[in-house]
Amino acid sequence: MCLSACFIVFPSLTFTLCISAAILLFIWRRRTSTLQSIPGPRGYPIVGHMTMLGDAPQEALTTWSKQYGSVYRLKFGVWPVVIVSGYKTVYEALVKQGDTFADRPAFQTFKDYANGASMSFHTYDASLKAHRRVTSSALKNCALGHGKTELTQALIWREGLRLLDLWSNRAGSFDPCEDVTLAIAGILYSLCFGHDRLITDDESYVNILTNVNPTTEQFAAGNHVDLLPWRKLFISKHSHNKNVERMRWMTALNQEKFDSLKHDVDASHIMGYMIEESKKAGNQSLNAEQLVNTTVEFLSAGTETSSTTLLWAIIYMAHFPEIQEKAAKEILDTLGPDHLPTMASCARLPYTEATVFEIMRLTTIVPFALPHCTTRDTRLGDYHIPKGTLVYMNLWSVGRDPHSFHYPEDFNPDRFLIEDPDYGLRLNRDALRRQLPFGAGKRKCIGEVLGKTQVMTLFTLLLQRCRIVAGKGKIPSLKPNFGDILKPKAFDISIEMKNSFE
């Protein structure tokens, strides 16, 4: 049946399509007209620039910034978007105008995935501020504060040594992804629910945390359900529903933990601390759903980001054996072969730390953070940006900003080091602050310190006790699979245990 015949036979469908198209055109024109003064490339009708991003949108957005400047305009579906690139402008938006750029857009998916109880997706209001304040306090009191770092360190050692023991019994090449993911998940599971609780005794959590997270591609440059709302009327929402299903499954698991712990509270772990704090008068704005979702985000986002960073570190060491050997020598010269690395002792390993920071700079695994939205009218650079504007922060471009880093595409840990006449080799703090892998300002990753601690300690332990070699004679790719988290392509490694640990 031809299209014209369809319109005759199904007049109600014709009317619906016409009204939908008119509404979308009205929304697009109204939103776009306020940003006309901001430059940007020409896009396509309906989809805007979404089909022009290719398989590496972080590179496409960074390339456009070289042509149109650090503030430019695109259109993702029905949403006009301001893209902010480069260290100076991103820092201006996130830090100097932190309150102005701290909101989230009114995406339907943000409401679906956590019923509005998520710190990551929540609008910028008093409830979010209270949630972040209590969560930060929970981290300090349960993982990183005075008297707690030793417990956290013991958990990292437990998982790191288990990982090494597992790998020492592996012959030939193997894929380390699930092993590394389970090690990070094991640390966070114990911090959330009790130091004596092992994730390996909880099959449900092992399954959900070690399986591929389908949300990573959905949130990367925006979910089509939000940006192209007509898709949810005429095209299957299968991928979106899978994401919602996974989040609800994990929330249900955490709810079970919450229900089992709330009557016998132990404030030494994060879930117990959050329950205890919620009873205080000052935290009336926090409800049970928000408390449960705090551990959901710790376990889900924390496991994804820290394990991905450690996997990239393993790949870079297989790629650059001379840098691996130099870092390993520093570790053995400073700690010896038997001393387990601590947070304090890692601070005495400037080259090893610089290597980790250089890997974080080049990979910037969360390339755009989550979408931001302005809370008021403002100016950024030379341009007026109205209240309610969707804004993407190109964090990936920050790590490759040539104004901050010479030859930014090169892997060079020395860029983060300086020779101090009084203290010898040490980290260059000015260079460090010019990369923002954890974001900045009001929405900065709340688990930054814990994430760095896990990655640095485990990385040091691995290089102290084994040598990482490319598996099957094939060097792993340095090109990521695109998503809201830039993950490595599948790869294998081989492990050579050092003599004293064989």
UniProtKB/TrEMBL annotation:
Q: What is this protein called?
A: Cytochrome P450
| Protein's membrane topology | Peripheral membrane protein
Organism (species): Capitella teleta
**InterPro entries per record:** Cyt_P450, Cyt_P450_CS, Cyt_P450_E_grp-I, Cyt_P450_sf
| Spans traversing the lipid bilayer | 7-28
Q: Which lineage do the record's taxonomy fields give for this organism? A: Eukaryota, Metazoa, Spiralia, Lophotrochozoa, Annelida
Q: Which UniProt keywords apply?
A: Endoplasmic reticulum, Heme, Iron, Membrane, Metal-binding, Microsome, Monooxygenase, Oxidoreductase, Transmembrane, Transmembrane helix
**GO term, biological process aspect, one:** hormone biosynthetic process
Its main subcellular localisation, reduced to a broad class, is endoplasmic reticulum
